[in-house]
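Hello Y.,

Per our agreement to keep a running log of every chain we model this quarter, I'm adding this entry. I've kept the format consistent with earlier entries: sequence first, then predicted structure.
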Amino acid sequence: MIVSPPWKVLIADDESIIREGILSSLNWQQLGLEVVAEAEDGEEALELACQHRVHILLVDLNMPIMNGMSLIKHIREELPNCKIIIITGHDEFAYAQAAIRMNVDDYILKPVNPVQLADVLTKITKQMASSMEKEEHLQMASKQIERNFSLLRERFCLEWMDGILSEGEIREQLAFLKMPGRAPSVLGVIQWSGNSRGKELFSERDRQLYLFAVENIVEELLSPYTMVKFRDHLGMLIVLVWETVPADHIEKIHAAVQTYLKISIATKFLQGIDEVTHVSNTYQQAKTALYKEVHLSPFVRQAKDLIAQGYGNPEITLEMIAHEMKVSPVYLGRIFKQELGIPFVNMLTHTRIKHAIHYLSTTDMSIIEISEKVGYDSQHYFSTAFKKVVGIAPNQYRKEGTMKS
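Predicted structure for the entry above:
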């Protein structure tokens, strides 16, 4: 049971004998009340009420300078939670009814009956105590929600990925959980199989520590962006980002995990989500693509990594990568196409164009500068390759992207 301090009361009546009669007729302490001030006119009553921040006002309607009606109006503006009990005579009852319409809490007829007044005050203090209790419970619940915000976000995101929420439910939850009210620009899925160089078995404790370390690396490298991360039902790390993430940031995640943790992770980051209801489908696509990626042979996975690292070198070829991997170009080319469904040269082209799109969208670099940066000796050759993959020329892509934004 919440114990409240004594409620503060102000008695406002221009007749001192009535004020004194009210004051002396009740055991205020027993009622949990304290009369903190008396006033003989409305203006003084308003000043004292605001000064003491009173909880209950006993007010006569017929007072000088500022009458009871004007006082009630000002009190409602200054102290909206103050309880108001009007004191009125039989001949002022029509006047009292107008005051009741101003949302006063009760009224007492003169001469004041102490028993009736005590009953009214008891009823009002119970109402205030109940309101205070509800308010404290709401504040406690609010603090509890704030403390568990990350958990609530994770539960919502899991339901979001499962595709079981309507658009209205998604937007309501996004607002409540203080997340951006639109679809994320990027959805990433990150998986660690639990294996490492020469280590095929980890204790559950060590596995969780590694996963936690991966999360920390992801959070640190993506900290400039609006991001939410959580683990899905399979234990994979899901990352939602509300800005475009440069491809080299994703590569930095791989490099950092490899450098600091000596383990390798598989990732799939997808962009271009246009509606909050499409997030679930994008998540499923990313998982499917990642599953295929994880089941690639070490040769193909290493070849892809070498392409991602060296696409800017115009001299890169299948033969060069095969030589570095110490396998024959024929074998690497055959297994590459077998597992990925496209030839090596197509993968190299798509990687270059993917990075070119990023530079076109996020920088002011010229077309020739971009073509050189992604590994093309000739701007014409770059434009031809870009149009073949994307469907339009690089300068048109940049122009249309600018118009949309």
